[in-house]
Design brief:
Blueprint: H1 3-23, H2 27-50, H3 56-79, H4 88-110, H5 119-137, H6 141-168
Helix pairs in contact: 1-2, 1-3, 2-5, 3-4, 3-5, 4-6, 5-6
């Protein structure tokens, strides 16, 4: 297994200790664990490109590990009360977009297509991770503002991906032959 794929798997594995640390009130340790997990998101792609070890497994696992980390952080921050009230709007926007895009990717794969990650989506992920890191540290106006920005980027990239997939996939009825 490549080093890049190991970094991606590390991100997925760190989700559980992060959640436990947040829910048991060890916020500083949770920030450290989340920071390490977020750093693997930056490193795995860089390492794969630098070492010329880009793999189909890595392309499949990376967005899954990202969604695991983001979704878990959103859930535990809602559960511990950091995100409540109107802050549930960006939480729902992010969660729904992630599910939507995952479904779109699956539809494309079934048709032999691929949905490459856009530069804006990479920025969206970085903004989400930074916002969630700040919010794990403690609730604050800066963290809340970043989460709203991340949610806006999330919606924009979701619409972009939807447009790309709708151009690629046929959503009409497949014509039948007139043979009887």
């Amino acid at each position: 297994m490549t080093l890049a794929n190991q970094l991606t798997l590390l991100r997925a594995i760190l989700v559980v200790p992060y959640a436990v640390l947040v829910m048991t009130g060890y916020s500083i340790a949770a920030v450290v664990v989340f920071g390490i997990a977020a750093a693997t998101d930056l490193l795995d792609g860089y390492v794969a490109r630098r070492r010329q070890e880009e793999t189909a497994l890595g392309r499949a696992l990376d967005p899954i590990a990202d969604k695991m980390l983001t979704t878990t952080a959103l859930i535990v921050l809602v559960a511990n009360g950091t995100l409540a009230g109107l802050m549930l709007i960006p939480v729902l926007a992010i969660a729904m977009r992630e599910l939507w895009v995952a479904g779109l990717r699956e539809g494309l794969v079934e048709q032999g297509g691929e949905l490459p990650v856009s530069t804006l989506a990479k920025g969206k992920t970085a903004t989400q991770l930074f916002a969630l890191l700040i919010l794990t540290w403690g609730a604050g106006v800066f963290g809340y503002a970043l989460l709203w920005i991340a949610a806006a980027l999330t919606v924009i990239t979701g619409l972009h991906y939807t447009n790309e997939v709708f151009k690629t996939l046929s959503f009409g009825v497949t014509p039948r032959s007139n043979e009887t």
